[in-house]
Write a structure and sequence with these properties.
Helix content is 62%, strand content 14%. By secondary structure, it is of the alpha+beta class.
Length: 154
């Protein structure tokens, strides 16, 4: 289990470090064009994925914090039970890091700090951060792990 917790810790540190850089060097709404399809921008998201419930009155901060903490505890239990399953545990470590990274943001700032902005012409994908990326990679790996498990069972 320790290697997976180590991976989660490295991802969590990277997430928090990048957010500290954004908070230190950018004001809310500031942006830097990197390529024709990618910007670094400082955005605050008080909701969940794709700003779900962002316009609620503030209760969502504590709901999403509680959900993130509950997910982290469940993931720790799963890691302890399945530490030998490499892809599954890798996926869980990524999701754990992402969940905790966004919980830290909500606890410290009342919102999640997002800064990766991909776009095409006038269409912008919702800004996100490294924690969101870790959760996405983890979810993809969970799906892949299950597909491989089903394939092996045949």
């Amino acid at each position: 289990m320790l290697p997976w917790l180590g991976l989660a810790l490295i991802l969590l540190i990277a997430d928090q470090f990048t957010k500290v850089l954004i908070l230190g060097y950018y004001r809310l709404g500031d942006a830097t064009t990197i390529t024709s399809f990618f910007n670094i921008v400082r955005v605050h998201n008080s909701g969940a994925a794709f700003s779900f419930l962002a316009s609620a009155s503030g209760w969502q901060r504590w709901l999403f914090t509680a959900i993130g903490l509950a997910a982290a505890l469940f993931i720790l239990w799963l890691l302890k039970s399945h530490a030998g399953q490499r892809l599954f545990s890798f996926a869980l470590a990524c999701i754990l890091a992402g969940a905790l990274g966004n919980v830290i943001d909500r606890s410290l700032y009342g919102h999640v700090v997002d800064f990766l902005d991909f776009h095409y012409a006038s269409w912008h994908f919702p800004a996100f951060n490294l924690a969101d990326s870790a959760i996405t990679v983890g979810a993809i790996c969970l799906i892949l792990d299950e597909l491989l498990r089903v394939r092996r069972a045949r």
